[in-house]
Amino acid sequence: MIWAIKRFFPIILLYWSCSSNNNSETTVNTGDTPPVSQQNTISEIEFIDEFIIENQEIEGVPIGGFSGIDYQKGKWYIICDTSTPPIRFYEADITYNKDAIQNVEITSMIEIKDASGNSLEQGVVDPESIRFDANSNTFLYTSEGSVNNGIDPALIEISAQNTQIRSFTLPDNFKANTTDDVSGPRHNGVLEGLSLSFDNKGYWVSFELPLIEDGPEPTTTDTESPVRITFLNKTSGMAERQFAYELDPVAREAALGTTFEVNGLVEILEYDTNKFLALERSFASGYINGGNNVKIYNVDATNATNTLSINALTTATYTKAVKTLLFDFETIRSQLKNTTVDNLEGITFGPKLADGSRTLVVISDNNFNSFFPQLNQLIAFKVIP
């Protein structure tokens, strides 16, 4: 999603690194995510390094818009946030150790096509997040659609041949509403996050902003602004559970005579049953350092109310998920290029370090530098149980 005042062809990307410390303790880019026994506790994460991926092109198509990232079975996947053909994602090689990110290479660009193998038309989808399901050998991605143009958000499954297989059945109140302004999703505030479920039975999708009937968009003053996180069964394709996650206020006021301010939930990861990491991003216009304040929360939805049957959260009594701050990117701002925390949108667990520790990788959407220079920023962390 744009928040700045809003074929296969290998290519090696040039990059900038804030650390040149090479160490023999490297990650192993093979194998799957760690076993269950290692996934149910996350107490903190430690900053490893940042890379800035230089703007490049593949066959004349610009690289950028890195809205979602996933790592499965030794491979990296990055989806491009664009509604302009070719609708695409990338395969990548990313190598790092406990001290530094050592290499970033985009190895191919994959065009997403419709069920008949044809290119998708302009504006039909607006990709945001991507996950690879190793059990079905398929990809899943979320699309925000376009509420203003009456195009519904979607969770879409893609075959290994890169053609769309199916679109999941979303709750009725997720559909674009162009008839009034008192209910339905907000434009550019719909399905931003996606996670495989920990039990491998389905997928979690998350809204970026509250439904209109659920509460206001966050402001710099604290508001009741819950977003819905929904589980969809992979067999039936239907929603089975949902809970509410409360957004923070906007972190700072817009500056330099500008007025745009927003805060939303941009990505999720379920790492144990009802336990999630949530990437939450606040943006205020008018700042040289990007205007973003980004945090990662530990989220426990064990005792949260199933809100699927609740029409409007503003008039309901229910229990929200519990969120605990895990990491504030302000703590590393001084170590980042241009002291910029950019438009971070994607998050995934990466390969293990040589000592067995898990890693976490976050990536930013540069919006193709539509408004002012932004970065293809990639940040790696070590996970502490």
Task: Tell me the layout of helices and strands.
Elements: E1 11-12, E2 15-17, E3 44-53, E4 57-58, E5 61-62, E6 66-72, E7 75-80, E8 88-96, E9 101-111, E10 127-133, E11 138-143, E12 154-158, E13 164-167, E14 191-196, E15 202-207, E16 226-233, E17 239-246, E18 261-272, E19 275-284, E20 292-300, E21 322-328, E22 344-350, E23 359-364, E24 376-384
Antiparallel strand pairs: 1-9, 2-3, 3-24, 4-5, 6-7, 7-8, 8-9, 10-11, 11-12, 12-13, 14-15, 15-16, 16-17, 18-19, 19-20, 20-21, 22-23, 23-24
In short:
By secondary structure, this protein is mostly beta strands. It is 0% helix and 42% strand. The chain starts with 10 loop residues before the first strand and ends with a strand.
Q: Helix count?
A: 0
- Low-confidence residue ranges: 2-38
Q: Would you count the extended β strands for me?
A: 24
Structural class: mainly beta
- Amount of beta strand: 35-45%
Task: Return the average pLDDT rounded to an integer.
Answer: 91
C-alpha-based Rg, rounded:
19 Å
How do the strands of the widest beta sheet line up side by side? 1-9-8-7-6
The outline comes out as globular
For the biggest sheet, the summary is:
5 strands, antiparallel
Helix content: under 10%
User: Kindly, what is the distance between the CA atoms of the first and last residues, rounded to a whole number of angstroms?
Assistant: 31 Å
Helices and strands, in order, run as EEEEEEEEEEEEEEEEEEEEEEEE
